[in-house]
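Internal tracking record. Fields below are filled automatically when a chain is submitted to the structure queue. Please do not edit lines marked as system-generated. If the sequence contains nonstandard residues, flag them in the REMARKS field before resubmitting.
Queue: standard
Priority: normal
Entity type: single polypeptide chain
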Amino acid sequence: MSKKSQNTTARKSEKFPSKADMLSAGLSCVNFNLRRASRAVTQFYDRELEKAGLTSQRFSLLHTLGATDGLGLAELADLLVLDRTTLIRNLTPLEELGYVADVPSENKRARKVILTPKGLDALRIAYPIWEEAQAAVTEAMGEDDLKRLLKRLNSIVRKRNFKEFSKSES
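SYSTEM-GENERATED OUTPUT FOLLOWS
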């Protein structure tokens, strides 16, 4: 019997989880809960940043580029934990608006993007709106809880391989 058919047979013979088992798994699933919380936070910031004509994703790209002298796509994708295709899909509208532009890179084969003066103007408009949204989130969560959450989330991003992840960083 092939390994694939052995796995299929093993799965069929296992007890199907009950509704209570599935509810418990959903409530304790890190992925499910982080994605759910992420959508809630994203929707809040999107509603606020809409006043500046931006989404939270576009704002994140602009302020990340605004904090640098430009970044190569690979470096930007790694920093934002995005695959290259998603990054390009998110950069394209910003390029069309004239907020970001390509610049020569040290590596002639790698693309590098910078924030343009028009992008900086958009960021100047959006930044005070973001500050108000951030203050609302901080107040709702409490500053200490927010600091702990951000520290833990950054630890997760740095590790990315949960086989190496440890509680010692909390």
